[in-house]
Amino acid sequence: MGLSLYVLVLLTLLHTLSLTDRFLIAAFGTQISLDLGLSNQQFGFVTGLAFTVFYATTGPLAGLMVDRFGPGRLLGLGVLVWSAMTGLTGIAKSFTGLWLPRTLVGVGEAILIPAASRILSARFADRHSATVFGLFFMGGHMGVGLAYRLGGGQSVAGEPLVWREVFLGLGALGLCLGLLVWLSVRWLGVAGATASNGGDRASLPMLIRALMATLAQSRRLQLALLGLALVHVLYAGMQFLQIWLVQDKGLAPGEASALYGRVYLMTAIPASLLGGIAADQLARRLAVSRALFVAAVILLCLPLIIVFRLSAADSPLFMPGMVISVFAFSFPYGAMIALVVAEAPEAIKALVMASALFLANVGVIGLGTFLLGAGADWMAAADMSIPMTRALLAADSLLILAAVVFLLLHRATNRRRD
Question: 3-class DSSP state for residue 202?
Answer without folding.
Answer: coil
